[in-house]
Amino acid sequence: MDYVFQVLRRPAAGETVTEAVLAVLAGGKGANQAAAAALCGASVSLLGRVGDDALGQARRVELTSLGVDTSLVGVTPGAMTGVAFITVTPDGENAIVVAPGANITLSPVDADNAQDAIGGASVLVAQLEVPVAVVARAAEIAPRDTPLVLNAAPVRDLPASLLKRVDVLVVNEHEAGQIVGQSVIETRDAMEATSKLLALGPTAVVITLGPEGAVLAEGETRQHVPAPPAKVVDTTGAGDAFVGALAAKLAASATLAEAMRYAVGVGTATVGYSGAEPHIPAANSDPFGN
Q1: If 0-12 CB within 10 Å is exposed, 13-18 middle and 19+ buried, where does residue 65 land?
Q2: What is the set of active-site residues?
């Protein structure tokens, strides 16, 4: 669950900033991505964990109402449901602190117990707010011809064997910069960074660039998809909406380039609203209005 504070500016060390406006909103990277994929028309199952508290129960109910199968979302006794504390400034930019709670209790055994769902999926999506060992185990279980979309966020050290199994690595410009050890600010920087990311093993790399859209690298091909114009209210969750939309389109047999173009539009649509819950165009519509 996200606790979102709208602030005029973030406090400096030792400073208190008052007059913030608080909203309590649905959150969690995996949950957001699952919700986005479902709202984009995909049939979605979510593997994860919540605590045995009111937040966890509310989150499962809400995801179910959005069309996500939560039968694989376990409850960890004695644990809190994961929460994030987010400050959002008037320019829409955010800073986030996460208390993972029950998320870190997800284990490879949970992946084993979800073998039927993982084995039958058209696309497997993973992110790194859960232990890397769980992602690695799910990747082992999935058939080799099942595309694995890995949103490597937050950035963690990943085994080479997992990176070589990834079909589509998705990172934002900050995460790309952390991984390759160079500044990634402009589209040109992202194009350069994709080569280093591809060298780590994934088949394709997507770097999201906020208002600049996203770049795609696959083999020797490089493509930039600019974002449509948008009034920015809150960028929280835009990346998750992007990943969910991308996965939904891939599951519907779109090419990666087609899926990325749609995902850029969906991610952009999300920044016009407060909070991380995705605001998704109709499943078959073009977010660019074409």
Answers
A1: exposed
A2: 240
